[in-house]
């Protein structure tokens, strides 16, 4: 039961634009796998190819060893939230889910169960057109859960959710993974994945950047820096540079130091009798690692590129 | 809005994986019956569809009542020549009725699919059931059944209403009169044929306004300009359009015999041709497109 979703050499070309390029990765059960990349990196296109909605230019994607379209009752195999529910605004939430349940011969009670599960039981009879973005995300999650599937795909599920909803959805993903399911969650924000994902698949401009555990990914990030404030900045900068550190003055009295721990900076200052007003270690974050790896591969960036 | 623990997903998940590959056969669900039920739920759960069907039938009955009452009042003033040319069936279901029924049904068919494209629902639908051809076949079947019922209601309802009014002048017709049954069938079948054409145009164009306008143009507006003429090839081309065939043959109790005009058999063929071509376009195009 190692590899539930297997993507091999997946490529998608739209006219002259290469949206996804020779992408290969696997997603395993029992984990929440974060699918990360800047806007336009090809995440949605990849998910749609896994679901057979878009036809790959080359390569393949399989779920449990077969292409997903070979499954007849799709909801029983893979639950997916693609774009804020993808529902007709004129229908009620209950009618939307009822039609889906019927198409897969699922019992009627599943509709009530999933509406309850996502907290929309009170809005079951209301038209989807009157829903907020957060409510439509919940409806999309409800439709993904409808068939009680072993594999779940969520494309940017956190968009539009309030803080309470974000916390709820994280708990839901972790629980689904703990039940042994395979959970793939896409996002363009590292911070969303930090407390949710165990593994990461990171892409940029349609190419694979990383496919590893969260810890391994974090280790790739910039090494920590130390911020130090002193009235004798020039003297301290010279001393630290002598000890092999990379020193950047932030202002007349503030230095950013890389390559030395906060303790070593303090000792060096003490040895030379330089007073310190502040000494702060700045941990490297996943966000740093993500930014560093993807900045040069972002599709859209503010300002002109050199 | 936190989900209570009681509503957790039912139990441990089913055994699945390489050991039990889920092949396209032998697995439960996605039987045609389930797909028909799903498509019926989709069609009937949209208030706009129920309004279109309900108000459409009422509107056509209203128009029939009005024109039949006008004929009832005007009858004593007609001279014998006018009386000889009076067709009681035209009061029940005229060319305007034909156009309305075709536009209404065609729009219902087009909206059944462009409504899914425009809202993204098509992705949800085809993720739930990846067998695209079966999904569209079920959608076409449900549309055909619903519009056949609505078309029959309009055809029979307008006839019975109109003849009830006209019979008071002794000029009404009965269901058993010659030609009546065929005209009523031709009136009713305009609805499912138009709905299938709307569905086909909708799948091809995927754009709401474009599909509705395209369907109306193809079914009613363009053939409205056709007139029998001296070029036989043009006459034969015109005869392939259902509304032209209805106007010049199937909608008439006693269709005139002429080389330039469609025959009864040829007109039924035109109906069938459009229904079949629209269905084929629907099933073929849906297979090829990215969503």
Automatic annotation (TrEMBL), chain A:
The keyword ATP-binding applies. This is ATP-binding cassette domain-containing protein. The keyword Coiled coil does not apply. InterPro entries: AAA+_ATPase, ABC_transporter-like_ATP-bd, ABC_transporter-like_CS, P-loop_NTPase. PANTHER family: ABC TRANSPORTER, ATP-BINDING PROTEIN. GO terms for molecular function: ATP binding; ATP hydrolysis activity. Keywords: ATP-binding, Nucleotide-binding, Transport. Residues 5-230 form the ABC transporter domain. Belongs to the ABC transporter superfamily. PROSITE patterns: ABC_TRANSPORTER_1, ABC_TRANSPORTER_2. Pfam families: ABC_tran (PF00005).
Automatic annotation (TrEMBL), chain B:
The chain crosses the membrane at residues 52-72, 92-119, 140-161, 181-201, 208-226, 268-286. The keyword Membrane applies. It comes from the Bacteria. Keywords: Membrane, Transmembrane, Transmembrane helix. Residues 1-30 are annotated as: Disordered. The keyword Transmembrane helix applies. This is ABC transporter permease. The lineage of its organism: Bacteria, Bacillati, Actinomycetota, Actinomycetes, Kitasatosporales.
